[in-house]
Amino acid sequence: MGGDGKVFTLAEVSDHNAPKDCWLIINGKVYDVTKFMEDHPGGDDVLLSATGKDATDDFEDVGHSDNARDMLKDFYVGEIDVSTITKKTEYTPPKQPHYNQDKTSEFIIKLLQFLVPIAILGLAFGIRLYTKSS
User: Fold this and answer.
1) Are 100 and 29 in contact (CB under 8 A)?
2) What was the pLDDT predicted at 4?
3) Contact 60, 10 (CB under 8 A)
4) Which residues contact 14 (CB under 8 A, 6 or more apart)?
5) CB atoms within 10 A of CB 133
6) What are the E-state strand segments in the chain?
7) Dihedral sign, Cα of residue 20, residue 34, residue 64, residue 67
8) How confident is the model over 29-76, as pLDDT tens digits?
9) How far apart are CA 126 and CA 134, in angstroms?
10) Pairing label, strands 17-18, 76-80
11) Mean of the per-residue pLDDT values for the chain?
12) Distance between CA 74 and CA 129 in Å, rounded?
């Protein structure tokens, strides 16, 4: 096909998202893969799901052969204006409260203040039952 080096916006490329008109963005280049839809080994649904976004990661994750990469030249129509593609936001985990070791001792003290009387009560009750049955 051989493009003339035209620069497309993401909105323009996103308009081509149907089985009879399918464009993809891979590595900053725009490809019209409409003629390849029926021949794509993964099926046309895979290609359609990659429209309207930068499909570079989708393409690379599959591990395409050198032959598949060479085939892209036949479908090239132009470049993408990268300023029109929204940047991926990186996941940042929520901030965890700082672990304070000093509070651990407070927790243990409170736990013991609860458990020790219960243990003494249980022991006293057990001794009382044992002495009555003897």
Assistant:
1) no
2) 64
3) no
4) 51, 52
5) 6
6) 6-8, 17-18, 21-26, 29-32, 76-80
7) positive
8) 999 999 998 889 888 899 999 999 999 988 988 888 899 899 999 999
9) 12
10) unpaired
11) 86
12) 91
- In the chain, the amino acid numbered 91 is Y
DSSP state of 38: T
C-alpha to C-alpha distances, 54 to 15, 51, 112, 119, nearest whole angstrom? 14, 8, 58, 65
Higher local confidence (pLDDT), 6 or 92: 6
Token match 């479908």: residue?
75
Per-residue pLDDT of 66-113, as tens digits, reads 998 999 999 999 999 988 887 766 777 777 776 666 666 778 888 889
pLDDT at 1 over 60: no
DSSP-derived letter for residue 94 is P
